[in-house]
Design goal:
213 residues; two-stranded antiparallel sheet; 7 helices; 10 strands; globular; PRTase_dom; EC 2.4.2.10
């Protein structure tokens, strides 16, 4: 679920502007999963643009307080959301931790880096939601550390059905600054894509694993 339409369109505009999101329906990318995709999203690029990263930081922080109240801790999901999560924590003047995909094999063998938030209210920050699997893996680690995970916020969501199902099954709320639907609207409004390309992009989202342009 997006926070609001205006923010969703503006976020999409900014991400397209700096090529954090690229749309190439005629020259698809190949994801690590093997999926052919007309879109590639790397929100870490936003950290190189102070004005844009500040926009994301301020809006994520604002909506966290509006939707969840002020938590005790902000958690970022490694590695993509460490940067933006830290910025949000700074904006809210809150402690920050981050969660690895799995515990380290050496040293203290931590999966959660920082002070483990036992009994504390935590909001998780992500940069991108695809299937939701890695995001919810971080939530699982926090739950096992006896944290009270209030919800998750993210910059962008592809809007896959599998992600909606995974978050529903986990009984966890998710809000994002923008999503695929609003991205395509913004891209069409600014002539970044044509109507024909929009149809191609929409068809991909319905069955990304078997999509063929």
């Amino acid at each position: 679920m997006i926070f609001d339409k205006n923010t969703a369109k503006k976020t999409a505009e900014l991400l397209l502007q700096i090529n954090a999101i690229k749309l190439q329906p005629q020259e698809p990318f190949t994801w690590a999963s093997g999926w052919k995709s007309p879109i590639y999203c790397d929100n870490r690029v936003t950290l190189s643009y102070p004005v844009i990263r500040n926009f994301l930081r301020e809006h994520l922080a604002k909506f966290i307080e509006e939707k969840y109240g002020k938590p005790d801790v902000i958690a970022g999901v490694a590695t993509g959301a460490i940067g933006i999560g830290m910025l949000v924590a700074e904006q809210l003047n809150l402690p920050f931790i981050y969660v690895r995909p799995e515990a380290k094999k050496h040293g203290r063998k931590n999966q959660i880096e920082g002070i483990v938030p036992s009994g504390k209210n935590v909001v998780v920050v992500e940069d991108l939601i695809s299937t939701g699997k890695s995001s919810l893996n971080a939530v699982k680690a926090l739950n096992e550390a006896n944290a009270n995970v209030k919800g998750m916020v993210a910059i962008f969501n592809y809007g896959f059905d599998i992600a909606s199902e995974n978050f529903k099954e986990a009984a966890l709320s998710l809000h994002t600054l923008s999503n695929y639907e609003n991205l395509l609207e913004q891209a069409l409004d600014t002539n970044y894509i044509t109507e024909e390309q929009q149809k191609t992009l929409q068809s991909w989202r319905t069955n990304p694993a078997e999509w063929n342009q």
